[in-house]
Each structure stands twice: as C-alpha cells, then as structure tokens.
Amino acid sequence: MFSKQALKAGLISLLIFLAFVGAWSLATHQKEVPAATGADAEYAALMGKGAEKSSGFPPPSKVAESFVTYLADPFYDKGPNDKGVGIQLAHSLARVGVGFLLAVAVALPLGFAIGMSPLLLQAFNPFIQILKPISPLAWMPLALYSLKDSDISGIFVIFICSLWPMLINTAFGVASVRRDWINVARTLEVGPLRKAFLVILPAAAPTILTGMRISMGIAWLVIVAAEMLVGGTGIGYFVWNEWNNLALPNVIFAVVMIGLVGMLLDQLFGVLQKLVTYRE
C-alpha cells in the first residue's frame, strides 16, 4: 500500500506533467502544413521511420505518435539507418556494461589498497587529481587513433569516466572504517584477506555503492555523446541520425527514453545501496 504522502506526491507530479504538456501544446499550436511532396515521400521511404521532416518544434501529439510507432515494434532491423529503439538501447547498454565492469575490476581493488595505505594515497593522489577533471570525450580522439575501433573506443571512454568516482569513493569508504573494528579484528588475529572481506568491505559497502551509482550515471550520460561522435549503432547515434533527418519528434522520443533508462539504472543501484546500508 502507498502512503498518503506518496499518493499526494504522485498527484502533484501528474498535475505538473499535465500543466507542462498543456503549455507545450499551446506554444506549438500551428496551422496544418501541406502533405509531403513526391520527393519527400521518396526520401522518407529511403531513410526509414525517422525521416518525416519537422517544420517547427513538434507538438505533444507528434511526439506521442513517435512513442506509438517505435514502441509498437522496438526490435525491428531494416538496415544501418533504420533500427528499432530496443536494438539501439541494447547496443548502448552493452557498451556501458562492459566499460563499467572493467572500471569495477580496476577501481575496487586499487581503491582498497589506497584506502588502507596512506603511502599509496599520497603516491596516487596527484595522478587522480590530474586525470579526474578531464572530460571523457577528450579521450575519444586518442582512443580512436590508438584502438582503431569505434566500439572499443566507446567502451574505453566509459571505462575512464566510470573509474574515478568508484576509485575515490572506495578509497574514502575503506579509510573511513571505524578503527575500533579494525583493532578488534587485529586483536582476534584475523587474517588480512578475511579482515578485508568480513570487516572492511561490509563497512565500506554503502560508500562503494554510492561511487558505483555516480559512475553509472556518468557512464550513461557519456555514452550518448560518444555514440554521436563514432556513429554506427546506439541510442546516441539514433538521436544524431534523427536530427540529421530533421525528425524532431523522434529526437524528443529518444531523449525521453534516455532519461527513463537512466532513471531505471539509478533506481537499481539505489536498491542495492539500501541492501548494504545498516544502522548502528
């Protein structure tokens, strides 16, 4: 059962959404435009579903049509420039997943080592502070030149942008574990490996999950921009291709889908974070 506050919040959200759609509809109200010419119809047949050109900012009804069209068959494949949104999202999620897991494999053990050793913290800190502020997309030209593959380059960009929040939060979480618990483990002569998994990891887990949650948000944000540069497949390429076709309703549809998938990924990590959070 939902609480009264949750129902009230949901009602307010619905009213805000309806007000936004109403204002949008009024702002984009315009007279009917002539039907597509023969040349436009031929162009649309060549380029696929997303080729209907916009003559102005689209009203909500046109965007709703895009939702119905693409969600009715999200996994169709009719060529390089005409794939369903499900296929495009799957390509993007696959790139994000591989890059993110590679970042986890590097950030967690290295963050543990840095968090447990003040010497390593001082040694690595200059490199972290220099590399952390660099825009992930600044790495793309170097990745494309070195790796010679757009898919691998996209995965590398996800890896490099996901690494720093996880690394920093893991090191901070490990370094912040209460000394009392470490001293008790030392008194009981618990081995280093067992101490790491049974004492330090459970205590630092909420902070580590926070870093992973931040990293996933950044990774999903960056992959869209990266796919606009490298092209081929992915939701970022879908947005860029629809923009080139001047199909603004499809661009707005894709933007909303990006937001929904990002929200679901964030909610997933939020659930995991609650599972490892405890009260003293």
Mind explaining what this structure looks like?
This protein has helices at 4-27, 38-47, 60-72, 85-116, 118-131, 140-147, 150-175, 179-187, 192-230, 235-244, 248-276. With 280 residues, it is mostly helical. The two termini are 28 Å apart.
How would you sum up this structure in a few lines?
Helix content is 76%, strand content 0%. It has 280 residues and is mainly α. The longest helix is centred in the C-terminal third of the chain and has 39 residues, at 192-230.
Write the layout of secondary structure elements.
Layout: H1 4-27, H2 38-47, H3 60-72, H4 85-116, H5 118-131, H6 140-147, H7 150-175, H8 179-187, H9 192-230, H10 235-244, H11 248-276
Which features characterize this protein?
280 residues; mainly alpha; 11 helices; globular
- Beta content comes to under 5%
The radius of gyration over CA amounts to: 24 Å
- Euclidean distance between termini CA atoms: 28 Å
| Alpha-beta classification | mainly alpha
Poorly predicted segments? none
Number of strands: 0
Which bin fits the share of residues in helices?
over 70%
- What is the count of DSSP helices, taking H or I runs of 4+ residues? 11
Identify the overall geometry. globular
Largest sheet descriptor: none
Mean pLDDT: 85
Order of helices and strands: HHHHHHHHHHH
